Amino acid sequence: MKITAIRTLVVHARMRNWVLVKVETDQPGLYGWGEATLEWKTKGVVGAVQDLSVLLIGQDPRRVEHCWQIMHHQYFWRGGITNYSAMSGIDQALWDIKGKEVGKPVCELLGGPVRDSMRLYDHLGGGSLEGMYRTGEPESFAELAKESVARGFTAFKCMPVPIAEYIESPAVLKKAARAVELMRLAVGDSVDIMLDLHARTTSAAAIQFGRLLVDYNLYWFEEPCWPEHIDALVEVSRALPFPIATGERLVGRWEFRELLEKRAVAIIQPDVSHCGGISEARRIGAMAETYSIPMACHNPQGPVSTASSLHVAFATPNYLIQEVVRADVPWRDEIVIGGFNVNQGSVSTPTAPGLGIDINETVALKHPWEPEVMMPAFHKDGSVADW
Questions:
Q1: Active-site option among 12, 298, 311, 367
Q2: 239, 261, 335, 344: most buried, per Cβ within 10 A?
Q3: Same domain for 130 and 98?
Q4: Are residues 44 and 181 in the same domain?
């Protein structure tokens, strides 16, 4: 069997363009899908997939690890999140082909399921919530939290922390804390709340926010500062009593090594569409397991990324919980054939061959590339801030 073509299908999903990757073979009807979505970097990822395809045309797609090594080693310039995202999409598609060819779900090929179901957490940042993020009214978060729980979720993530200053004012700190307080009152103590800081904060500001949130028993405190600032993450972890999580902006196992060695966080969050695909996510998870650190893959992307993440989840012993998006675009479920029902709090073990999904290309083509919604961020004095 040989790879005959690697193509990208870009689908505009409002907040981001999904970069779907299709690997075709010389076997009639046998192809695989992956996802390399990287918002605001769409054209770069599409170009990187094209560059990598030159290396893989004619290769046997069933030799997944061999193909991964070719993509990683055979260009002088390697690494970076754009290149790794392209590798990730191709790697997912290769696993999809391998599973379809032998008639087994990918998680079976990764050693078999280690659990019977996977808990999901809702991403409250989907859909038309940009305005809420800008106004940050605490009551809005409580309403979204109640809606999520009514749908069957027992955990959700939100982002009530605004564009942050280096050191925050009492008014901003108290408003964010009020949002968390209202969410906790709305859903009770049996529901887990994750807070995403989006790396907007310095370690000092993250600690300021965190100290006001101690009473609300957060499930985790995500990306309190940029992940390459390992010692800053250590500072935050030591200063606060709840778990710190990070990893969505890190790629390859090498970028996770110091994070684990210093025990800078309690949970790692590689993204299967950025970190190097299913193959590399598995290796990162195994590394984390040696430190007794759980993994919960980041996943605000499209349905192929969700399927790939869940196959990793079912085959990884130290997997904690899976992020899903359900309300970013109203036609989300129309574009995928098969897959997982993520409009609930958990999913069962996959049984369909490969990733268990296909793409309805007719529907996909109705939503061609458009520029993503831009989110410019500035401090009060007009200087540039992290979004």
A1: 298
A2: 335
A3: no
A4: no
Q: What is the pLDDT of residues 80-90, one digit of tens each?
A: 999 999 999 99
| Alpha-carbon separation of residue 269 from 28, 152, 298, 313 (angstroms) | 37, 23, 5, 12
Alpha helices in 213-302 (DSSP H): 230-239, 252-261, 277-289
* d(C-alpha 270, C-alpha 246), whole Å: 8
The number of distinct structural domains making up the chain is 2
Nearest CA to 4 among 79, 66, 61?
A: 61
- Residue 125 pLDDT: 62
Top pLDDT among 125 and 8 is at 8
Contact 100, 92 (CB under 8 A): no
Residue 367's identity, in one-letter code, is H
Which helix (H) or strand (E) segment is 323 a member of? strand 322-324
Question: Do the domain assignments include residue 308?
Answer: yes
- Which token pair is 138? 């605490």
- The Cα 109–Cα 98 span in angstroms is 9
d(CA 47, CA 219): 38
Closest CA to 104 of 342, 276, 349, 346: 349
In this structure, of 48-62, 147-161, 274-288, the range with the lowest mean pLDDT score is 147-161
Q: Does residue 369 lie in a domain region?
A: no
The pairs formed by 262-265 with CB atoms below 8 angstroms and a separation of 24 or more are 262/230, 262/231, 262/234, 263/234, 263/237, 263/291, 263/293, 264/230, 264/231, 264/233, 264/234, 264/237, 265/233, 265/237, 265/293
Q: In this structure, are 158 and 257 located in the same domain?
A: yes
- Of 328, 367, 300, the C-alpha closest to 128 is 328
Residue of 72, 123, 198, 367 marked active site? 198
Cβ proximity of 52 and 90 under 8 Å: yes
The reply to whether the predicted model has a pTM over 0.70 is yes
User: Whose CA is closest to 92, among 301, 323, 237?
Assistant: 301
User: Same domain for 152 and 92?
Assistant: no
Residues 6+ apart with CB under 8 A from 285: 270, 295, 312, 316, 318, 319
- CA dihedral of residues 312, 192, 173, 222 (deg, nearest 10): -10
Q: Which domain holds residue 247?
A: 108-353
